[in-house]
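Structure first, sequence second, as always.
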C-alpha cells in the first residue's frame, strides 16, 4: 500500500526532501476484512456514501449494508455507527465481528436492513485522535448547523433512511465496565438492558451511580449531551437510540465480543417487540 500522502508524493517526485510525518493509520487496512466479507457475501454490500477533502486529501465515508433474509413485516432499518471518535476503532472491529457472525447465521438479521458505518471519522482514525483533523469533536456537532463535511454527510444519511433504530459504538478509557445511553423511543431501555446482560459474559457492567457525570442505573444513562449523533428532534416516530460504551482498557477481544453479542441481542429483542406490537 502507498503510505505517502499526496503532498509527500509530490515532494518526492520533485526531488525535494520529504518531511517525515507521524505514521498514519490506514482506514483501508482496518476495513480489509469487511471488504473481504462483502466480496464473498450475498447479504453484505459495500456502498460508500460521500466524499470530502481534508488538507487537499480526498476521503470517502465508508458504509456497508447488510440485508437480512426477508421477515414477515416491513423491513426494519437500523443504523450502526462506529469510530466517530477516531481513537476508538474497537467499534469498527466489532462491526466486522458482527457481520462474520451474521454470515454464518443470517437468520439473526431476518427482517432487517442494517446500515453499518464503521469509520465515521476517517481523518481522526488516521491520526489516532478523538477529534477530526479539523479539530472538532464530531459527536458534538449534530443538528446544530455544523459545517463539518462528515457530520453533514451523516445527517443526510440519518434523515434519508429514517432509521427505526440508531446504535452508536464508543469506548471509554475511564470506565472499568460496559454501560450505555438511551434516548429516542421509550423502548430503548428495554433493548439496552438485555444487551448489557448478555455483554456481561465478556465484561463487567459499570454499576456506579454516576458515570461520565450523569446519573446512571445499572449501567444505563437516560440523558444525552447536545450534538451527539442521533435522530433529529421532533420526529413523529423517533427511533430507538442506544449508545454502547465498552471499557477501553479491557482486552480488545472482550470488547469486540461484548459489542457483538449486545448488537445481536438488540436485533433479536427489537424484532420480538415489534412482532408483539403488530399483534396487539
Ligand atoms: Zn467515543
Amino acid at each position: 500500500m502507498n503510505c505517502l500522502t499526496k503532498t509527500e508524493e509530490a515532494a518526492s517526485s520533485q526531488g525535494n526532501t520529504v518531511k517525515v510525518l507521524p505514521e498514519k493509520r490506514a482506514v483501508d487496512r482496518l476495513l480489509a476484512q469487511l471488504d473481504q466479507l462483502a466480496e464473498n457475501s450475498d447479504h453484505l454490500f459495500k456502498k460508500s456514501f460521500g466524499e470530502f477533502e481534508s488538507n487537499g486529501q480526498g476521503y470517502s465515508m465508508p458504509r456497508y449494508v447488510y440485508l437480512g433474509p426477508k421477515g414477515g413485516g416491513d423491513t426494519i432499518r437500523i443504523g450502526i455507527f462506529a469510530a466517530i471518535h477516531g481513537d476508538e476503532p474497537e467499534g469498527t472491529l466489532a462491526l466486522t465481528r458482527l457481520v462474520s457472525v451474521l454470515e454464518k447465521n443470517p437468520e439473526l438479521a431476518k427482517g432487517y436492513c442494517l446500515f453499518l458505518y464503521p469509520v465515521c471519522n476517517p481523518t481522526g482514525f488516521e491520526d489516532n485522535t478523538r477529534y477530526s483533523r479539523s479539530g472538532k469533536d464530531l459527536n458534538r456537532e449534530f443538528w446544530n448547523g455544523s459545517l463539518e463535511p462528515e457530520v453533514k454527510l451523516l445527517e443526510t444519511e440519518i434523515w434519508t433512511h429514517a432509521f427505526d433504530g440508531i446504535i452508536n459504538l464508543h469506548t471509554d478509557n475511564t470506565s472499568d465496565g460496559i454501560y450505555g445511553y438511551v434516548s429516542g423511543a421509550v423502548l430503548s431501555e428495554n433493548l439496552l438492558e438485555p444487551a448489557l446482560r448478555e455483554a456481561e459474559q465478556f465484561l463487567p457492567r459499570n454499576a456506579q451511580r454516576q458515570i461520565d457525570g450523569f446519573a446512571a442505573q445499572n449501567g444505563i444513562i437516560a440523558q444525552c449531551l447536545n450534538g451527539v449523533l442521533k435522530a433529529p428532534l421532533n420526529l413523529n416516530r423517533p427511533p430507538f437510540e442506544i449508545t454502547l460504551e465498552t471499557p477501553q482498557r479491557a482486552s480488545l477481544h472482550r470488547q469486540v465480543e461484548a459489542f457483538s453479542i449486545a448488537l445481536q441481542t438488540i436485533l433479536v429483542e427489537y424484532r420480538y417487540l415489534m412482532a408483539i406490537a403488530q399483534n396487539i
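Margin note: The longest strand covers residues 165-172.
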